[in-house]
Structure formats: structure tokens, C-alpha cells
Design brief:
Among the domains are: 69 residues; 252 residues, Aspartate Aminotransferase, domain 2 (3-Layer(aba) Sandwich). It is built from 15 helices and eleven strands. Helix 13 packs across helix 15. The radius of gyration is 24 Å and the shape is globular. This is Aspartate aminotransferase family protein. Belongs to the group II decarboxylase family.
Length: 465
């Protein structure tokens, strides 16, 4: 064994304690760290021929790279609908790496059974019935890709072909209808060979990102000559956390044939709040559902789940034939359910946080996030220099400058705010804007007051062009 490896193996208990102390110190500093730091990125260095061991590597990482990293795990990072990692989720993630299990085959221990138990808990959390089968994937983009790959096979079933076997060309024209589709939908359609131009934008309601049901029906009627369509509904849009009326969309199935995929990457968590659960009414009727766990469940990144009613079609797409893999059977291994063969046992972190805090604990996180978003929205509404672009439907406040709302001025504003809060730049109805998305378990009322104060000071410094 290489001497450095042997030395680290012998010292591993002490070295892990060093890492634990370093991690605890880092987490304790999140409230005071600059959210987006300003130090320059260190220049790259060549890989050394001789390693320095774990202790020296930790010291170098802390000195060279940590000062440049954003505090995205902290309470005032409000970009990209980014959650943190609850204490239990962090512990579960450490154990995931410790066990280093590849949960792709039931031949190898009980990892898949742990995944299935966790999926059952999540299904209940979101109000889905046992007709929905779930699979862990890396993120919302992969969840959408798996859902639409299954939908593509459904289109083939309707037309008497199998895209998985015969290629996507066997389908003929494909139409995908959506009011405000997330950018990952176009990426998925590109990967799946359906093509980005298959996505047909449908009018949304005035002043909303929710699809106009009458316009959707017109689009379905217009394209029915091409055969069945795919419809993508939103349960929480990225700009304003708006929701499509899924029940009304489902009612259109009485007259039109389509697969319904619901992008509920973070909006599915509205089910935990009694005051907002109505927003996801009809979710169980969807054919496939995307939920991103490293958003509002607050588990570390690289964790999402994909639900579908048609696991048979999912396995038709992703089945993997090899002598060392078992048959599909009634309960397929995950090797037959996603593009990945190998994947870490992502379920451990989710299992830990669900078991540690239960439905009630995660409901509190959701409702506190919503309250924070509304407090910020009210504060923005009260500032003459700012303009709220949409009501705060859930956990997102979208706003812009009242005067000269140019991308350049908004960039200058975010630069002035960078040490205190990170907001995502966006565009809504052609207007450059900023988006504050609340989903981190750490964010609380004092953070909101700090953010509001930072906004007021930054606006005072921002000069008109």
C-alpha cells in the first residue's frame, strides 16, 4: 500500500475528528460569512507527483478554496430555490459516503429496500397514492428526463411502436404543450431525441405564469390530428411559484388523449401546509411527477425523486440486460428504472431527515419559508424604489426596480447585496427582475430583517443611470 494511504488509514479516526471539527466550525460561521464572497479564484496548480495526505490537504483546501465558496448552505442564500442540509440529512449523507453502497441491485444487501421505504414515506408526504411508483435520481432535470422518456414510450404504445426499440423516428410528429415550462424540459426533449421544437408554448393567464385552460384546450384540439400529446403542468414556477390548475387539466382528458407530467420540483411540498395543500390538488392524477429533494426537503445536493403510474413503460425504456442482473420481476431493481446503473444510496439522507423530524418538522420548515417570503414581499411593496411583479403565491418573491429596471442596474444592486444575500436574476414578462426563493431550513425572521435592511442600504447607494 502507498505509504500516504497507509498513514491515513492508521490515523483515520483522528483525521475524521479533525474534519468534523472543521465542518462544525464552518457551519457555525454561516450566519456571518459573506453569502457571495469577493476574493479572486485561486489560479490552478498542476497535480503533484507526491501526495501530501489528508491533514495537509484539508489545510490547503481551507486556505485556498474555502474563502471563495458561496455560503449556499446558509440562511440568506435565496437563489435557485436552494435548500440546505438539516442536521439529520447531513449525518445521513456522511453515512452514505461511509457505506459507499451502489444501490442498483437487490442482490447486494437491503439498500433497495431502504430506498423503497423512503419512497413510500415521500409518496405519503405529497399526497400520492400507491399507484405511483418512485425512483431516486440525481435532480429535477433527471427526474423530468425519466418522466418524459416514459411518456415517449406511452406515445409509442398509443401508435403501436416502441421508441425504446425502434427509435424516436417511429413516433412521427410529437407535440409537448406547456404554459411556462422549466428550461430543463427543453434539455430533456433534446436528450430524448424528441427535439426542443416539439415544445409548444401555451398562453398563460393574464399576469400569471399559470396556463390558460381554454388556450390549452385549443392547442390540444389543434394538434389532435398528430395523435396524442404530452402536457407539462407546473406545480410551482421558478419565477413566481405559480401553480397550474391540475384538476382542470385532468378534466380535459374526457375529450383529449394526453400524458400529463407535473413539474413539482419544489411545489409538491405545498402539500405539507394545510393552507396551501389545495395548490397541488389533482397531483395524484398525473402520469409522472418530478420532485427535487435537495430543495425543500433540505437534503444535500444530488437527490430527487421521479414518480410514475406506468412503471412498466419506465422499465421498457431503461431495462438493462446483463447476466449479473436479476430479471425485472414485479419489483424491478433501480438498474432497470433510470439512465444510471451505478448510483449512491441517496435515500439515506432523505430517510434520516424524515425520520428525525417527521411530517410535522418538515411542515414547519415549509410554513416558515412561506412566511419569510411574504414578509419580504410586504417589505418590497412598501419600498418606493422597488416593485413587486407578482403576488407571493408560496415561497418566492419576484421584484424589480420601480425606475429604470435594467439588467445592468439590477446587477449593480445584487453586487451591493452580495455580502448579505444572494438573489437570482431573472426576467418576467420581459422585465428584468430579481427572485428570492425561500427553502433553507435555517432561514428565520432575523434573517429577513437583515435582508430588508441590506436592501434599504443598497438602494440608498444605487444611483440612477
Amino acid at each position: 500500500m502507498h505509504p500516504r494511504l497507509a498513514e491515513d488509514r492508521e490515523e483515520l479516526p483522528k483525521l475524521l475528528r479533525d474534519v468534523q471539527r472543521h465542518a462544525a466550525s464552518l457551519l457555525a460561521s454561516l450566519d456571518e460569512r459573506d453569502v457571495v464572497p469577493s476574493p479572486p479564484v485561486p489560479p490552478p496548480t498542476p497535480l503533484p507527483a507526491r501526495g501530501v495526505g489528508l491533514k495537509a490537504t484539508l489545510e490547503e483546501f481551507a486556505e485556498r478554496w474555502e474563502p471563495t465558496l458561496s455560503a449556499s448552505a446558509g440562511p440568506r442564500y435565496l437563489g435557485f430555490v436552494t435548500g440546505g442540509a438539516t442536521p439529520a440529512a447531513l449525518a445521513g449523507d456522511w453515512l452514505t459516503s461511509t457505506w459507499d453502497l451502489n444501490a442498483f441491485s437487490s442482490l447486494d444487501g437491503a439498500g433497495q429496500h431502504l430506498e423503497r421505504e423512503t419512497i413510500t414515506w415521500l409518496r405519503g408526504l405529497f399526497g400520492l397514492s400507491d399507484r405511483h411508483h418512485g425512483t431516486f435520481v440525481s435532480g429535477a432535470t433527471m427526474s423530468t428526463t425519466v418522466g418524459l422518456a416514459t411518456a415517449r414510450e406511452w406515445l409509442g404504445e398509443r401508435k403501436g411502436v416502441s421508441p425504446a426499440e425502434d427509435g424516436v423516428g417511429a413516433l412521427g410528429p410529437v407535440r409537448v404543450l406547456s404554459g411556462a415550462a422549466h428550461s430543463s424540459v427543453s434539455k430533456a426533449l433534446s436528450v430524448l431525441g424528441v427535439g426542443r421544437t416539439a415544445l409548444v408554448p401555451v398562453d398563460t393567464l393574464p399576469g400569471r405564469e399559470a396556463v390558460d385552460i381554454a388556450a390549452l384546450e385549443r392547442a390540444l384540439r389543434e394538434h389532435q390530428a398528430d395523435g396524442p400529446c404530452l402536457v407539462i403542468a407546473n406545480a410551482g414556477t421558478v419565477n413566481t411559484a405559480d401553480f397550474d390548475d391540475v384538476l382542470a387539466i385532468c378534466a380535459l382528458r374526457e375529450r383529449y388523449d394526453f400524458w400529463l407530467h407535473v413539474d413539482a420540483a419544489f411545489g409538491a411540498f405545498a402539500a405539507l401546509s394545510p393552507d396551501h395543500a389545495h395548490l397541488v390538488d389533482g397531483l395524484d392524477a398525473a402520469d409522472s411527477v418530478c420532485v427535487d429533494l435537495h430543495k425543500w426537503l433540505n437534503v444535500p445536493y444530488d437527490s430527487a425523486v421521479q414518480f410514475t403510474r406506468r412503471r412498466d413503460l419506465q422499465t421498457a425504456v431503461f431495462q438493462n440486460a446483463a447476466a449479473y442482473l436479476g430479471p425485472l420481476g414485479d419489483t424491478p431493481d433501480t438498474a432497470h428504472l433510470t439512465p444510471e446503473n451505478s448510483h449512491r444510496l441517496r435515500a439515506i439522507a432523505a430517510w434520516f431527515t424524515l425520520r428525525a423530524y417527521g411530517r410535522d418538522g418538515h411542515r414547519e420548515i415549509v410554513e416558515r419559508s412561506i412566511a419569510c417570503a411574504r414578509t419580504l414581499g410586504d417589505a418590497v411593496d412598501a419600498m418606493p424604489e422597488l416593485r413587486l411583479l407578482a403576488p407571493v403565491h408560496l415561497n418566492v418573491a419576484c421584484f424589480t426596480l420601480a425606475e429604470e429596471p435594467t439588467a445592468e442596474r439590477l446587477t449593480a444592486l445584487t453586487d451591493l447585496l452580495a455580502a448579505e444575500v444572494f438573489l437570482t436574476p431573472t426576467v418576467l414578462d420581459g422585465v428584468p427582475a430579481l427572485r428570492a426563493a425561500f427553502s433553507n431550513w435555517r432561514t428565520d425572521e432575523p434573517d429577513i430583517h437583515r435582508i430588508i435592511t441590506a436592501l434599504q442600504k443598497a438602494l440608498h447607494k444605487l444611483q440612477p443611470s
